Amino acid sequence: MGDLLRSFPESVHGRTEHIEKSCVGLWGQSMTLQVARHFKNGYLQRVLTGERRQYNNQRKAREPSHHHSPKPSTHKTMSSSEYQDPAAAAASSEAEVSKKAAKKEAAKQEKLRRRQEIAAAASGTAGLSVDEADPLAANYGDVPLVELQSNTPADVADWTRVEALGAALENRTVLIRGRAQAIRPVGKKMAFLVVRENGFTVQCLVQAQPDTVSPQMVKFAAALSRESIVDVEGVVTIPAAPIKGATQQVEIQVRKFYCISRAVPSLPINLEDAARSEIEIEKALQAGERLVRVNQDTRLNFRVLDVRTPANQGIFRIQSHVTNAFRQFLLSESFVEIHTPKLIAGSSEGGAAVFRLDYKGQPACLAQSPQLHKQMSICGDFGRVFEVGPVFRAEDSYTHRHLCEFTGLDVEMEIKKHYFEVMDIVDRLFVTMFDSLNQHCKKDLDAVACQYPFEPLKYLQHTLRLTYEEGIQMLKDVGIEIEPFGDLNTEAERKLGQLVLENEAEVQRG
Asked: Which segments show compositional bias classed as Basic and acidic residues (predicted)?
């Protein structure tokens, strides 16, 4: 806006400076109404038609004559009397005329560009209200930074979690905080917002009403940039029709609306695009529609936005639940959680798949496994130990089964008599984890499956056990030969699992 105003002629610099100072409010919490008045009264139109033309004529009159011998430039400001008439300069030569015509065309294009900018600015402010005072201004606005400082203790119980919004809170006034995920204005006196918190969303209605919500408040909410953090206070209602665009089947009739942290108007990643599945993109292409695909490098460059998608939120929450279920089960089975070193003097499992580094002149490695320290713990009379921690492998492969860094779930226990004791623990451990995921993470599993489709996990409450001989025989029956007492490769493992699944289905049908 400042550059646009500075392009006005010198003859109006006084008024221009006044407008430029008024425009500071465009970037703050409210806008002074001087600009709106100037736009409304046709000030810009007068500048474009009259005073701008006068300025161009004066500039042409100041252009130097080209038939004089060139003189070194001294950057001296010269009066108009020292220059000849522009018409005489235009008649000096055809080359000069051609050059001047090119300059004239460039100036014309620049003038057109500036006119379009000014028209765009005028249209953007045409709908601004000219009412200087809003009696309900205290019910909305940007919260100043000074008010966000920890000056007085706050009770977090004042805020209701979006997840907790339900029919039981009907007709109650609640205060929520979240991100403005979607904003949809409907006319000048109504706007819908979807507020998101921790993956849960709720629809909010801002509608102009006497003594509670002003049209300026509706305009403020409608102009808010998406992904801004807001505080919304309102009354919980239950709409007649189901809400498709939110997880919570209630609606908040907004009474107060404050912006805590305003996001930039244009984000580098659109969350709707980042949450789109490949299947959806391919179907659109087949139908002749081209949808935006967010590539891996873009996701990593703007990871803070990418992790906000429902699928990524679900992945992290599932991971958290898995480690928690793992830990709780083993603690209930008298295991002790340990924390082993990750920076060690040598490789923990041998081989070349190890990250080596120099630590103050001495060779060191990143731990490939806590195996050595787990065995030391058993020999140290702990009996049963486990660990949840990072594992580092300098793998050369690029399959989904090979990772250079992952979170390992490690278990070690003493055996009283038979290795079946370990199998019993592992059996109950996995069934407990799977049951817990199905019971507590259905929403997260659905969110992941929406973007990355997968088949629901099938398992038995009592895991099927096969002896080595039985498994080898099942593979031989379908024509797969395995070396005697040899390990099963990846293909053989998959085939054996498929055979077990098919046999189990036949047993259930029988």
From this structure: 55-66, 96-110
Q: How many residues does the chain have?
A: 510
Tokens of 387: 């660990």
At residue 296, what is the residue type?
Answer: Q
pLDDT in tens, 42-85: 444 443 444 445 555 655 555 554 444 444 444 444 444 444 55
With contact defined as beta carbons under 8 Å apart, do 202 and 215 qualify?
no
> What type of residue sits at position 187?
G
Q: What values do phi and psi take at 149, rounded to 5? A: -70, 155
Q: Exposure of 411 by Cβ count < 10 A (0-12 exposed, 13-18 middle, 19+ buried)?
A: middle
- When pLDDT is averaged across residues 75-97 and rounded to a whole number, the result is 50
Give all strands of the β-sheet with 405-413 in edge-to-edge order.
336-337, 384-392, 405-413
Q: Which CATH architecture has domain 137-144+157-261?
A: Beta Barrel (2.40)
Pairing relation of β-strands 384-392 and 336-337? parallel
Helix (H, G, I), strand (E, B) or coil at 115: helix
Sorted by where each begins, the domain ranges of the chain are 2-65+83-125, 137-144+157-261, 271-308, 464-510
Q: Whole-angstrom Cα distance, residue 279 to residue 285?
A: 10
448-460: pLDDT as tens digits: 999 999 999 889 8
Compute the distance between CA of residue 288 and CA of residue 277 in angstroms, rounded to an integer.
17
